Amino acid sequence: MNTTPSDAVLDAPALARYIDHTLLKPEATTADVAALVAEAIELGTYSVCVSPAMLPLALPEGTDLKVAVVCGFPSGKHHSAIKAAEAALSIEQGADEVDMVIDIGLAKEGRFAEVEADIAAVRAVIPAPRVLKVIIESAALTDDQIVGVCRAAVAAGADFVKTSTGFHPTGGATVHAVRLMAHTVGDKAQVKASGGVRSYDDALAMIDAGATRLGVSGSAGLLSGAAESGSGSSY
């Protein structure tokens, strides 16, 4: 787990280790993803996050870069068996982590047992140490719904709860949602803030609220903000 004490210094290399360097545009090409990988390695990010059709990725020998892939993306309105099959194929093709989208409608109806079953179906095909992150689309949910979904994710064995796809019209991550999610899951899971995390200050705010991973598409710009802040800046 990534942790950052309140009195620690968070410079660009340290912040990069929180980042899933992300490219999920439907028009992304093989060349775009190759460039993403090269940039991620240059920046030192924890992983790249891509669409499942882009797998398998050709990674340079010796890199510690992880590969994350989305599942049931972006709507979550897929049968659980389809999500599980997609996740299983992604693992077979080299994914280290799977970011699945829940059925948001089930959450809004308070059908949390069914949300849990959906997550559990995907968890069942992702063996440890592979990681399952659960995208809850927090901006579309009430606080009570966020709590219910986070509890369902923990009960189903998820490693992370994640705020957003970045594609929903209600918006992306907020400090309030991240803090609520972190409080709900406690030490049973981690929190990924994704959607609208664009600046160094955004990143620090999300980490301060409890995020241990960040989904970022503009990682170079965000990390340049960390560099400009100076390595002596206290976090």
UniProtKB/TrEMBL annotation:
Keyword Glycoprotein: no
Subcellular localization(s) per the UniProt record: Cytoplasm
Tree of life domain: Bacteria
GO molecular function: deoxyribose-phosphate aldolase activity
Protein name, per record: Deoxyribose-phosphate aldolase
Reaction equation(s) it catalyzes: 2-deoxy-D-ribose 5-phosphate = D-glyceraldehyde 3-phosphate + acetaldehyde
Pfam families: DeoC
